[in-house]
Design a protein that fits this description.
With 374 residues, the chain is an alpha/beta fold. The chain has 2 domains: 3-273, 3-Layer(aba) Sandwich (Rossmann fold); 289-369, Ribosomal Protein L9, domain 1. The protein contains 14 helices and 13 strands. Strands 1, 2, 3, 4, 5, 6, 7 and 8 form an 8-stranded mixed sheet that branches. A hairpin with a 2-residue loop joins strand 10 (303-307) and strand 11. The radius of gyration is 20 Å and the shape is globular. It starts with a helix and ends in a 5-residue tail after the last helix.
């Protein structure tokens, strides 16, 4: 593959220019779509039921905000966020920001960034009443600023200012996905993480798909090949991306199905941790460390799911690789886990593969997969 073509494949730009994509997305989400009922695929639709604390928070979000939600997952930890600073990239009508405003409490803060005027108007219109009347906070703890997620500095985001960066089915809409990931890394504090849901593909899509305006708006044309996303994440500084959930996306419209052909699409939620250089390695290494969940997260005191192959039963020590130990000890999760051992003795590669299902893992997976929230 020629260098220019490879860059296009990795960035998702293909033949479309940045301005072309921004105009198409603004028109689709600002004018053509009036509500989530107008969508032609299941891509921009949450695929699984989120944890109960998030469901409870969703029940408080104004209907006008919910009606213009076009996300594909639940990119928010369900608890432990009190006092945190959260950045929502591509915040749209503000649904996830409103949920985050409740989870961080009155001492936390939430900032949404979006460039679509119609979406920003909806998000801003209800913010004060939601925070001060519904949540009964002394002041509004969230705001929404106009800007491009490819350039968070220009939007006014300060380096290392946020504990958590979230995004919901928006990175695939960007013409420069590498810049978005670099911006996430820039905005996070050390020990923070980016949690975001998006649409991915099992292959690199041809230009005929990338140039399709409706498929751009439906979060399909901009879907990254999963392996290309992992490469971009590592290049941005996020070593060892962790997959949390995955659900298949259906393209039900016959005409659109003909355009995408045999390509398969998935809504995947990833966790990307920002840690000091060297704390996360390119491979899972064995240092004989263990991690124990202390059962201190109110939404699930019995077990905690870190990713698709790590479920920690409360109070049961579990062998972990060096990367997992760092994610649990050196981030906001540190107060909820006890990690033993250091890196003074090395035992080779760690067998970091999904374990056989247990009662605990089946219980957690059932809770995460049941129902829907569109």
């Amino acid at each position: 593959m020629e260098p220019a073509a490879k860059r296009a494949a990795l960035s998702g730009t293909a033949e479309a220019t940045t301005d072309d994509v921004h105009r198409a997305v603004a028109e689709y989400y600002g004018t053509l779509l009036q509500s989530s009922k107008d969508l032609k695929t299941s891509a921009c639709c949450a695929a699984s039921r989120p944890p109960q604390p998030i469901v409870d928070a969703l029940n408080l979000v104004p209907d006008a905000v919910l009606a213009k939600f076009y996300g594909c997952g639940s990119p928010l930890p369900a608890g432990g966020l009190d006092g945190m600073a959260v950045l929502d990239l591509g915040s749209g009508s503000g649904r996830d920001a409103y949920v985050a405003a409740k989870l961080v409490g009155p001492t936390g803060r939430v900032v949404g960034v979006d460039f679509t005027d119609e979406q920003l108007q909806t998000a801003r219109q209800h913010a004060d009443a939601y925070c001060q009347t519904t949540l009964k906070y002394p002041s509004t703890n969230m705001c929404f600023i106009k800007g491009y997620i490819e350039d968070v500095r220009q939007a006014g985001v300060q380096e290392g200012a946020f504990d958590l960066v979230i995004s919901n089915c928006v990175v695939n809409l960007s013409p420069d996905k590498a810049a978005v990931l670099r911006g996430m890394y820039y905005a996070l504090k050390h020990g923070g993480e980016a949690v975001f849901s998006d649409v991915y593909c099992d292959r690199r899509l041809p230009d005929s798909v990338r140039a399709h305006k409706v498929l751009w708006g439906e979060c399909i044309a901009g879907a990254l090949y999963v392996e290309d996303f992992l490469r971009l994440a590592r290049a941005a500084g996020f070593e060892d991306p962790r997959e949390l959930t995955r659900a298949r996306v259906d393209v039900a419209d016959a005409e659109l199905r003909d355009v995408v052909g045999a390509a398969q699409f998935y809504s995947i939620t990833y966790r990307l941790f920002k840690l000091p250089s060297g704390r996360l390695e390119s491979k899972c290494e064995d240092y004989g460390q263990t991690a124990t969940y202390l059962g201190t997260l109110a939404f699930d005191r019995s077990a905690y799911r870190l990713d698709d192959h790590h479920v920690f039963e409360a109070f049961r020590p579990q062998l972990v690789c060096g990367n997992t130990a760092a994610m649990l000890a050196d981030t906001w999760l540190g107060r909820h886990f006890s990690v033993t051992g250091d890196r003074s003795r090395h035992f080779g590669l760690f067998p970091c593969a999904p374990p056989p299902p247990t009662t605990t893992t089946r219980m957690v997976e059932s809770q995460m997969k049941s129902g829907g929230c569109c």
